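User: Quick sanity check before I run a bigger batch. Here is a single chain. Can you write out its predicted 3D structure?
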Amino acid sequence: MTTRTAPASTALYDIPGPAARRRHRTYGIVSTALILAAAGWIVFLLLETGQFSGVKWTPFAYKGIQELLLRGLGNTLKAFAYAAVLSLVLGAVLAVGRLSDHRAVRWVSTLLVEFFRAMPVLVMIFFVFVALKAQPLTALVTGLALYNGSVLAEVFRTGINSVDRGQREAAYALGMRKTQVTTYVLAPQAVRAMLPTIISQLVVALKDTSLGFLITYEEFLHAGKLIASNLDYDLPFIPVVMVISPIYIGMCMLLSWFATWVARQERRSPKTKAVEVAPAEPGTVLPGVR
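Assistant: Done. Predicted structure follows.
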C-alpha cells in the first residue's frame, strides 16, 4: 500500500488541505457561473438592441472601410514605435542624470522627471500641437515620449539601485569606473527585474496612442470613430468596439509575449549561464612545502 506524501509548503503560503481545496473549488464554480451569467446578460442586451443586425456589420465588408482600418492600425503602430524608442532613450538619459555624482545634473534630471510625470499626457500633446504648431504625429509622439520616458527613468533608477550593494563594491575594487560598473555590472542584472515593469509601461504607451484622434491624427481609434458615426449604417458603435478592442488586446498580449521571450533568451544566453567549476584536484606542491 502506497501512501501519498503531503506537498511541502512554499515560502509564500501553505499548501491548502482537502477542506480548503474543496472550498476553493466551490468558489471557482460559483465565480465561473456568475461570469457566464453576466456574459449571457450582455449578449442578451446586445441582441435586444439590434447590435448584431446585418446593417450595422455591413461596413466591414467594404474594401474602403478595411483599408481605412488598416491605415489607422499602421499609423497607431508607427506612433507607438517612435514613442517607445524615444521613451526608452529618454528614460535611460534621465536615469543616468539622477544617478550622477554631480549635484546640478542630479537636480535638473529630478526636476524634469517629476514635472513630466505630474503633467497629464493629453495636456502635453495639446501644448505641442497648439502652442508649437507641430504636426499631429509629432505632437502625439512627443507627449507620449516625455511622459513615459519620465516614468521609465524612475524604473531604471530603482532597478539599478536594487542590485546588491556588494556587486557595486566588488566592481569598484577591481578598478572599474562608474560608467563601466553601471554598464557591465549593474544594468545587465537590473534588466531582469525591470523588464515586466518596462513592458507594462510600453503597453500604457500603446493604449495612449488612441489620444491621437483628439488632435486629428488618423490612428486606429480615429478610423473606428469615423465608421461608428456613419448614419448610413445606423451608427454601428458597438460593432466597431467589438472589432477594435480585440486588436488592441492582441497587441498588448503580443508585447507581453515578446517580453517573456526576451527574458527566456536572456536566461539561455551564455553570458548569464553559470560557469561549471572543475572539481578540485591535487596540484603541484609549492616550493618549500612537503
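The chain is about 70% helix and 0% strand.

User: Great, the batch can go ahead then.
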